[in-house]
Amino acid sequence: MKKLITVFALAALCVVIALGSVACKGSDKPANDVPSAVTTKSPAEIYNAVAAVAKFDGMTVVPTRDYTDIYGIDPAKVDSSVWYMSENPSLNADEVAIFKLSDETYAEELSKLFKDRIARQLQVAETYSPAEASKLENAEVVVNGSWVYYCVGAEAEAMMKVLRSEIK
Fold this sequence. Notes:
- By secondary structure, the chain is an alpha+beta fold.
- It has one domain.
- 49% of the residues lie in helices and 17% in strands.
- It has helices at residues 2-25, 43-54, 65-69, 107-128, 130-137, 156-166; strands at residues 59-61, 78-86, 95-101, 142-144, 147-152.
- A five-stranded antiparallel beta sheet has the order 1-2-3-5-4, sandwiched between helices.
- Strand 2 (78-86) and strand 3 (95-101) form a beta hairpin.
- Helix 4 (107-128) packs antiparallel against helix 5.
């Protein structure tokens, strides 16, 4: 009799284990279906898409060596970046900065540096050109995960649309 009860108990245990493993397996989908701020494109590739709609006259790259000395950016926390500004920033406020950070915790600080830069540029532009000042007034700095970006230009709305579609 004890053997029969043991066999039934083991059989019941096997059924419970089998049913439990099927129930726990669930879906093959990840538990978190929320898209992350990840793109396979480089900042330079994204800039090319932005520049296609921007209609810039003449842009020059901001050298990475200037990040620290002139702008106060910590290059050790930047994975990759591209930053273009007008060849003559004292007459034209056009700019695009796209930064992918290696340290996501640095995003808010970098955002503040960019906002401060835009505010300084706005003060200067108000003295020489209301049209350039209006470009800066509409500038928006965006933090999306490890990405921080902004653009200034007559086509800012179209540029931001490209940036948002490229950095998801």
